[in-house]
């Protein structure tokens, strides 16, 4: 097996940049449903930090915002095809 420095080692994920930090967003608002829906999969589950590349601070804010938007019926808990 040839060592390829550009290929990540097994078990190591490529580091991603936080989209909210890059955009300079301080607070994630639950009323911005377009943004929140990008971080929810087709089943309605919140995507984990290792997939989205969010910072820990913004991932906590994101999960709280999604839960608040669900409670206020701005986004669904589950998709229509799972009901």
From TrEMBL:
Keywords: Ribonucleoprotein, Ribosomal protein, RNA-binding, rRNA-binding. GO terms for cellular component: cytosolic small ribosomal subunit. Gene3D superfamilies: Ribosomal protein S18. GO terms for biological process: translation. InterPro entries: Ribosomal_bS18 (IPR001648), Ribosomal_bS18_CS (IPR018275), Ribosomal_bS18_sf (IPR036870). It holds the Pfam family Ribosomal_S18. It comes from the Bacteria. The keyword Transcription does not apply. GO terms for molecular function: small ribosomal subunit rRNA binding; structural constituent of ribosome. Belongs to the bacterial ribosomal protein bS18 family. Binds as a heterodimer with protein bS6 to the central domain of the 16S rRNA, where it helps stabilize the platform of the 30S subunit. Part of the 30S ribosomal subunit. Forms a tight heterodimer with protein bS6. This is Small ribosomal subunit protein bS18. The gene is rpsR.
